[in-house]
Amino acid sequence: MKVLVCSLFQFPNGHLKVAEAIQESISKEYVNAEIKIVDFLGYCNWNLEKFVSALYLTCINKSPSVYRSLYKNIMYSEDSSKLQMQFPFISLYFEQKMKQLISKEEPTLIVCSHSFPSKMIGKLKEKGIISDVPAVNVYTDFFINDIWAKHPIQYHLVPHNKAKETLITKHGIKEENVFVTGIPISDSFNQTISKKDKRTKHVLVAGGNNGLFKSSELVKMLESNPEITFTVLCGKNRELYDRLSSLNLPHIQPRGYIDSSAELNDLYGEVDAILTKPGGVTISEALQKKVPIIIHNSLPGQEEVNLKFLQEQGIVRASSSNQLIEEVNSLVFNDDERTAMKLKMERYLEEISYNYTDAISYIIQKEVSQDLVRSTS
């Protein structure tokens, strides 16, 4: 069995993390399976991937209003065919590249962790070109944008019941083909870590690699709260790491990029709250660990839509810059508020009816071969 997992971009991002979680899961369940993660844009053209990823990062950080407008008009609008209608030759180019990729790899199952390759696979399926290869959408945000192919894709792993209802009622997907799994994260986060006895409160700050620290109020909050230990995940942002290190404050602990999910799981087990942006994967990790969440500085587009949903569920607290210090302190030092948020998290997680590993195994047994044996280790 060969599984092709289609993602997008080379830089660390949630779509890639979900792809890696899927790869890890299938590898454990089917030890003889070949699972290959492909950055579809990079496969098409490495220079194109570098250009588009640089443009994307520049746009969300330097011109957020431009990206927000593009997102609403192309990726999350009533007319989801707008991009293809305006640029048919571009769409045809990517369709041909996807056809080429599938012909080269000859997968027995295709999994998409990004909407763009899903769209191309959907178009090929509509034309009957790859109708014999089953495909799975694995949604990586708390909503379903318009770029994802819907009906041509056989199976769908969704974050919650509302997303399932949308696929069934709006797009005509059969109920038995939609699995409420939550956003897939590494199995490492299922490991329970005993909390250490500690005298000070501890907050994990995530998102330093993607614009969380544009706010001077955030740095001010870190400096002015010595009674809280802050572990700051700087990612690959060396400038931020050096800046925080130069403060030489013992309660501020900058960390570089953490590649190990087990190490990150240990950190979640130590903290009283997380201060982050509303990215699908980070929020899902915090939900799994039931770590109270404070949101600061959403990126334009998908994170703003995520935040709206999360606030409606009452499972995050959003903070503006001028209220950041008060919001962090009121949550971290108020046991009742943290307990209330954890209870809402537990109610939300009750919606998850399938472990994503079991859902994918069900699909493999049904569509690929009933003779494939899952590992018992």
Automatic annotation (TrEMBL):
Domain Diacylglycerol glucosyltransferase N-terminal: 15-185
Pfam families xref list: MGDG_synth
The UniProt record lists the keyword Protein transport: no
InterPro entries, per database record: Diacylglyc_glucosyltr_N, Glycosyltransf_28_UgtP
Cellular component per GO, a single term: membrane
Keywords (A to Z) from UniProt: Glycosyltransferase, Transferase
Molecular function in Gene Ontology: hexosyltransferase activity
GO biological process: glycolipid biosynthetic process
Keyword Transferase: yes
UniProt similarity note: Belongs to the glycosyltransferase 28 family.
Protein name per UniProt: Diacylglycerol glucosyltransferase N-terminal domain-containing protein
Natural source organism: Peribacillus saganii
